[in-house]
Specification:
4 helices; alpha/beta; Rossmann fold; globular
Length: 153
């Protein structure tokens, strides 16, 4: 569907497996960039603590996100969102099933799981930076593209 044919974007939910790395990272970057124009949240299929490497990768670009609390999908009114972006295959499958009788749009961005990286701290941080930078580009392209005209930058 073309951008002109869509309803205006007002609320975005990012969903991943644990709400520990990918979805909170996407939430934080989207909130910093577009939070004055849309509501942004994140959830996981299971609850987990925020990953310290994820927090460090965000701090490297000037984003503090320590005070945000993780959510599970069941705690979120997902029908209140215009767009849900699943960041793991499991999240995509579960969210697709949950949304089958709704008008909520679902996208799947298959983002690698940085927690699977091994090696030195720096080698592991490279994996988290790669996830961060990939998410940043997708957020700018997809969400920024939908908000073009509403948001500068």
């Amino acid at each position: 569907m073309s951008a002109e044919g869509r309803n205006p974007l007002q609320a975005v939910l990012f969903v991943c497996s644990l709400n520990a790395v990918r979805s909170p990272m996407a939430e934080a970057m989207t909130r910093i960039r577009y939070g004055r124009h849309i509501y942004v949240d994140s959830a996981g299929l299971q609850k987990s603590e925020r990953d310290p490497f994820m927090l460090a990768a965000l701090r490297e670009i000037g984003i503090e996100f320590e005070n945000d609390q993780p959510h599970v999908l069941e705690e979120v009114d997902y029908e209140g969102f215009d767009l849900i972006i699943a960041l793991s295959p499991e999240a995509h499958a579960r969210t697709k099933e949950a949304l089958r009788a709704t008008a909520v749009e679902l996208l799947h961005w298959p983002i690698p799981d940085a927690t699977q990286a091994t090696g030195t701290r720096e080698q592991r941080m490279l994996a988290y930076r790669e996830v961060r930078d990939t998410l940043d580009k997708l957020i700018r392209d997809e969400i920024g593209g939908r908000l073009k005209g509403k948001v500068a930058g």
